[in-house]
Design a protein that fits this description.
Strand 3 and strand 4 form a beta hairpin. This protein is mainly beta and 122 residues long. The longest helix has 13 residues. Helices cover 11% and strands 33% of the residues. The two termini are 24 Å apart. The protein has a 5-stranded mixed barrel with strand order 2-3-4-6-5. It has a single domain, classed as Nucleic acid-binding proteins (OB fold (Dihydrolipoamide Acetyltransferase, E2P)). Belongs to the replication factor A protein 3 family. Its main location: nucleus.
Length: 122
């Protein structure tokens, strides 16, 4: 199996996780809860649907706001995170999670215009 960083990552929301089991994904959501152990947390997408994220190592920082997670979707529909990145608000401009979610729906409705896999010509 190709590593999560070497393969294309489909951008998904919570309702798209079941179709992407054992695939590398990129998920953006708002932190809902962090488990006391710091080894997992839940995110809410633009439709307020929840996605669970599990980490290999406990968090070493406080996590809040909008977070992007890259990882593999498990059979349980949980994202097994390889990396995460917290979005910082710049100059009071908040990330519009609902608009991002609408863009995801368009990307998935028209895959011929928004391919996730890159082809190379030799």
């Amino acid at each position: 199996m190709t590593g999560v960083f070497e393969s294309p990552k489909t951008r998904v929301n919570a309702s798209m996780l079941p179709q992407n089991v054992s695939k590398a994904v990129c998920f953006v959501g708002r932190v809902d809860r962090v488990h006391p152990t710091g080894k997992s947390f839940t995110l809410l997408d633009g439709d307020e649907k929840m996605a669970s994220v599990e980490l290999h190592e406990p968090l070493d920082e406080e996590l809040s706001g909008i977070v992007e997670v890259i990882g593999m979707v498990s059979n349980k529909g949980t994202i097994m995170a390889s990396a995460y990145n917290a979005f910082r608000e710049e100059k009071g401009i908040a990330f519009d999670l609902q608009l991002y979610n609408e863009a995801l729906k368009i990307i998935h409705d028209f895959p011929q215009y928004y391919p996730f896999e890159v082809t190379t010509s030799n």
